[in-house]
Specification:
The chain has about 290 residues and is α/β, with parallel strands linked by helices. It contains eight helices and ten strands.
Length: about 290
């Protein structure tokens, strides 16, 4: 069994209760909605819920892929709930969100990978909350780039797809492809140059700084606008173990390098996740 290394002091976060957090939890339960915050055991859950934000996870709670770093449920997926897009939209409106983030489990069992369900969710949010910034974090839809055309009439403001790690370590994403994910992001920007594209990386899996800087360079070649870099925290004994805890100073170095490469926004730090503080990106909505 691989020995687990001790967390450093900079990776300790308090769990707390608050009226706003309870309000968000009650809303999610009442509308039978999932969040990646809960499903992936995010360490920022208390903080984000207290701020009245949540990353909605659509299309069920079971993923059709078996990435070894992820805590989201795996197994037989549930049928698509046709009422889910309006439920998410009503939740966004009820919470008065200025910035909403929608992600999903990977649904390789569906002909379109769930792309049309994402588009329907965007459509419903636009109807009820036209001023809300919409960010989506999607899987790669099996590499079928033609499916991106389903978003033509229902575009998000930010389109996120995570590379997760460096090419050498893609064994933790056995059904994914580094090249395919880069091509996916490049195609989004090619089809929809007016929206922002985004990607995220986990560190502490055994990668080198040179490898991370190389990935950032690849992302900029794909015209990716926003990057998030955060510490990988193993969610359980059955998941990939942490190899190293990256220092705050190294995260600062990654941030400096990312900005020098031309990213429009950079989130780099021990607790950073794909949607952590996503609302801090300055988006000017068209009138």
């Amino acid at each position: 069994m691989t020995e687990r290394i001790k967390k450093p002091d900079w990776l300790r976060k308090k769990i707390f209760e608050s009226p706003r957090k309870r309000e968000v939890l009650e809303l999610l339960e009442r509308r039978k909605l999932n969040t990646v915050c809960q499903g992936a055991k995010c360490p920022n859950l208390c903080e984000c819920f207290d701020r009245g934000t949540a990353t909605f996870m659509i299309m069920g709670s079971n993923c059709t892929r078996r990435c070894s770093f992820c805590a989201v449920g795996k197994g037989c997926p549930t049928p698509i709930d046709s009422n889910e897009p309006i439920q998410v939209a009503e939740a966004v409106a009820e919470l008065h969100l200025k910035h909403s983030v929608i992600t999903s489990v990977t649904r390789d069992d569906l002909p379109d990978g769930g792309a049309s369900h994402f588009a329907k969710t965007i459509q419903q949010i636009r109807k009820l909350s036209p001023e809300t910034v919409i960010e989506i974090l999607t899987p790669d839809f099996g590499g079928n780039l033609e499916l991106l055309q389903l978003f033509e009439k229902n575009l998000p403001d930010i389109f996120n797809h995570n590379l997760e790690t460096v090419p050498r370590l893609y064994s933790i994403r056995p059904a994914a492809s580094y090249t395919r994910s880069l091509e996916f992001l490049a195609e989004v920007k090619k089809l929809y140059p007016a929206i922002l594209t985004k990607s995220g990386l986990m560190v502490g899996l055994g990668e080198t700084a040179e490898e991370i800087n190389s990935v950032m360079s690849d992302l900029r070649k794909a015209e990716c606008d926003i990057i998030s870099i955060g510490q990988y925290l193993s969610p359980g004994l059955g998941n990939t173990p942490v190899v190293e805890y990256i220092t705050p100073e190294q995260f600062d170095s990654y941030s400096v390098n990312a900005k020098s490469l031309g990213f429009k926004a950079v989130f780099s730090g021990p607790f950073v996740r794909s949607s952590y503080m996503a609302d801090l990106v300055n988006i000017k909505k068209k009138s």
